[in-house]
Amino acid sequence: MSIYVGNLSYRVTEDDLTQVFSDYGTVKRVQLPTDRETGRARGFGFVEMESEAAEQAAIEALDGAEWMGRAMKVNKARPKEDKGSRFGGGYSQRY
C-alpha cells in the first residue's frame, strides 16, 4: 500500500519526505514524479511505509498539516486509472 502526498512545495526532495514520514515508522520508498518536459517536481509524491499501522498514523497526523508553507493533502493512494484513448474516442476500431 502507498500513501499519496499532495500540495507539496516544488522544492521538496525525497530525503525531505523520508524525514517527515519516518516520525511515524520505517519508510520503505519515496517517489516524487517529475514533469517530462521541464524535469521539475510536480507537487505531489508517494510514500510507502513498512506497515499499514505506520501508514495510518502518518495519514492521520499529516493530512492538512502545514509544511514548507503549504497544507499537505495525505491519504491512501488509489490505483492509477486507465484513461482510455488519448484522443478521447474511447472506442476500438473494428474492420
TrEMBL record:
SUPFAM superfamilies linked to this entry: RNA-binding domain, RBD (SSF54928)
Highest taxon listed in the record's lineage: Bacteria
Residue ranges of domain RRM in the record: 1-79
Annotated stretches, region: Disordered: 76-95
Keyword Ribonucleoprotein: no
Compositional bias segments (type: Gly residues): 86-95
Record carries keyword Iron: no
UniProt-listed InterPro entries: Nucleotide-bd_a/b_plait_sf, RBD_domain_sf, RRM_dom, SLIRP/GR-RBP-like
UniProt keyword annotations, A-Z: RNA-binding
Molecular function GO labels: RNA binding
A Pfam family it matches: RRM_1
Name of the molecule in the record: RNA-binding protein
Organism (species): Nodularia spumigena CENA596
Organism phylogeny: Bacteria, Bacillati, Cyanobacteriota, Cyanophyceae, Nostocales
